[in-house]
Specification:
The protein has two domains: 172 residues, 2-Layer Sandwich (Ribosomal Protein S5, domain 2); 137 residues, GHMP kinase, C-terminal domain (Alpha-Beta Plaits), CATH 3.30.70. It starts with 14 loop residues before the first strand and ends in a 6-residue tail after the last strand. The protein is an alpha+beta fold and 332 residues long. The strands form two sheets. Strands 1, 2, 3, 4, 5, 6 and 11 form a seven-stranded mixed beta sheet that branches. It has a four-stranded antiparallel beta sheet with strand order 8-9-7-10. The protein contains ten helices and eleven strands. It is globular, with a radius of gyration of 20 Å.
Length: 332
């Protein structure tokens, strides 16, 4: 008899650690949907910030401590109800990704909690299973793809079957390139019910622009990435950003959610930075440069010009999230 769901099952000593990386969502390229699939997007896995969650079996329901504990508990309780799991889990959140900043915090926490539960109770859940159970990946598969594989991810949008958007292309991010994140902590991006209502209120997206953006991603962005041609890659991403940013302007207050981040991006454009934009609903902006020395020089100028904002220097991460065993909770 399978005793996975028996409340009397003995607690084991070992736990599980999940590390989930943040991601950039660089834009949708088919918001029209006339071909039967809608959205389609391109994004990038980052080496930081990251979420790190430790978890152990527990006889005391779903509990957690650390930043984001209440959200982790809600996710765990919802999953347990859906799966009919009568046992508990204690979670320790060591570090988290800033919420509602456009870095994928909600998806990564859901994946971390779900994978921890699956590993502790041998549930055999895949990343897509967890996404479906927690209502993640409803429009974009970037967060799922970056957790699974790292690198630059292209997803094929959401089809009529209602499954999560499939990853249709994946490429390594050049090791020498660097990403500068531009954060305005006074703002949060559109999220939750406001995001749902925003999509409902938006007008139809022109089919000719969607067709052009699809061509640009396939025939400009991806080949440029393979050839490490940052100006060409940046030109494709910048056009994607401008077209979709203007489309979402009525919902987020302009091409960029934060006018202060927008001012930084304009300054970077004037100083010949070719690849820049806003991730998801923002307010976080990003710029990609060709080397670490160039990134440090750029950072120094940005801090002098825009000292009221927060900047973070990152690398692309060409590996996904990590799942590993850890010791007895009492010895942590």
């Amino acid at each position: 008899m399978n005793d996975l769901y028996s409340p009397a099952r003995a607690q084991v000593d070992t736990g599980v650690s999940i590390t989930a990386p943040a991601r950039l969502h660089m834009g949708f390229f088919d918001l029209n949907g006339e071909l039967g699939r809608r959205y389609g997007s391109i994004g990038l896995c980052l080496d930081q910030p990251q979420m790190e969650l430790h978890a152990w079996r527990s006889d005391h329901g779903m509990t957690a401590d650390g930043p984001g504990a209440s959200r982790a508990i809600r996710i765990a309780e919802g999953l347990a109800r859906m799966l009919g799991l009568g046992q508990g889990m204690h979670m320790q959140l060591v570090r988290t990704i800033p919420e509602h900043a456009g870095l994928g915090a909600g998806t990564q926490m859901s994946l971390a909690v779900g994978l921890a539960m699956s590993r502790l109770y041998d549930l055999g859940l895949s990343i897509n299973d967890i996404a479906m159970h927690t209502q993640r990946g409803t429009r974009s598969g970037i967060g799922l793809g970056t957790f699974a594989q790292g690198g630059v991810i292209v997803d094929g949008g959401r089809g009529s079957r209602g499954s999560v958007p499939p990853v249709i292309a994946r490429a390594d991010f050049p090791e020498s390139w660097r990403i500068i994140l531009i954060r305005d902590n006074a703002h949060t991006g559109v999220h939750g019910e406001a995001e749902v209502e925003a999509f409902k209120a938006l007008p139809p997206f022109p089919a000719d622009i969607a067709a052009h953006l699809c061509r640009s991603v396939l025939m400009q962005a991806l080949p440029a990435l393979a050839e490490h041609d940052l100006p060409a890659f940046g030109a494709a991403i910048r056009e994607l950003q401008e077209r979709t940013g203007d489309y979402f302007a009525s919902a987020q207050g302009g091409r960029y959610a934060s006018s202060r981040v927008g001012a930084v991006l304009q300054w970077l454009h004037e100083h010949q930075v070719s690849c820049l934009g806003q991730t998801s609903w923002g307010p976080t902006g990003f710029a990609i440069v060709e080397s670490e020395p160039q990134a440090h020089a750029c950072l120094q100028m940005l801090k002098q010009q825009f000292g009221d904002l927060e900047f973070l220097l990152c690398r692309g991460r060409n590996a996904g999230g990590m799942v590993c065993e850890i010791g007895d909770r009492t010895k942590e």
